[in-house]
Amino acid sequence: MNKPITNYTPIIGLEVHIELATQSKLFCGCPADHFAKKPNTQTCPVCLGLPGALPSLNKKAVKDTIAFGLAFGSSINTFSKFDRKHYFYPDLPKGFQISQYDLPLCYEGLFMGKKIRRIHLEEDTGKLVHQEVDGKKVSLIDFNRSSVPLMEMVTEPDFHDVSEIVLFLKEVQQIARYLKISNADMEKGSMRLEANISLTKKSDTNDKLPDYKVELKNINSFRFLEKAVISEIQRQESILAKGETISSETRGYDEAKGTTFPQRLKEEAMDYRYFPEPDIPPLRFTEAEIDEIKDKMPELPEGKRQRFSEDYRLRPAYVSLVTVSPEKAEYFETAVKLGQNQGIGAEVIADLIVNRKMDEKYMEPAGLIKKISELTNVSYSPVSEVASAVREVLDSSPKAVGDYKEGKGAVVGYLIGMVQKKLEGKGKVDTIREELLKKLNG
Length: 442
Description:
Distance between the termini: 62 Å
Structural class: alpha+beta
Number of strands: 16
Largest sheet: 9 strands, mixed
Radius of gyration: 29 Å
Number of helices: 14
Oligomer: single chain
Strand order of the largest sheet: 2-6-7-10-1-11-12-13-14
């Protein structure tokens, strides 16, 4: 499965769809939370596409999309609009999808060294449910998902390796959660992935992209994505090695067989007959309105990781795990502030959260700190008492002091032990070391 690609370089672009967690749908007042709800119970004439029903735009969905774009370094179109994208499929009741074509809300971003072509807002479709009724295999349609607000991020074909794709997408998921605009849960379908893949010869030095691309659809997990992309790369390499050509098409992935399979020929933009949506007025934004959205954005994952590393001196593995979600990061930081008054360090708290999952047992940070205090049951000596003990030890240990002055730094450990003995084990090690070094270097 992990056979290296020797003669070809993969050229991969991504399309990421994320459902926004707004209360209502994009163009009507029906609830947007459709997961596990009874089929067709959250619909109205608008999201069912009935004749004469007019859409009304959800402003929060627009602001959430702009915030998401800003998080990825995108420019924001101060003039934007919606368009009709025509295609015929049973889960699209109107015969067209309200999306954005030439004037998306966000464009030309840059994130983790990868270029973001666009981030636009559109309505989701209904959902086909395949099951057996009265002994017959049938496909039923649930329109609860129809018109749920859906963001689509389109990257440039800047990816060449599966591992970098997974890292990028995990960061995308985490940012959506930090912004609190979506849970981006792939198992529930609120984050869906597509990859456009083609290969170019490693010996080819020009920048021209291959004249074909294959789109992998219906990817619902990072593990599934990794297997599907590797399988498709190997399929294409095999075809090109024979001197044959590859068709531009949409393919799925059969996990049981470990291979991709054709679904349909790939459409071009002209096939969708885009034209401006006449029932939704164009959108106009001022720079002040965009700045207001930016000012309300929370600290994002990368900024929080960097701050936790610098402020709390945590090892990288701990930093990643305590910032995995905004809720866990907030829990950790609150616990650290509470623990400072009791001499409980950030590293100790991080260790208990990461390795012993104590944040799951104690839902409130105060409960965790209380438990740590009970477990340690140590009343540390005050700084003044530590300083006094340090003076006494240094005065009675001239040889050790001389050894330190000659560059024998290991003697500090011996001196810490002597101070602890004088304090009957109640000295905080960090405080003792700080006081010792202050006197020794003074």
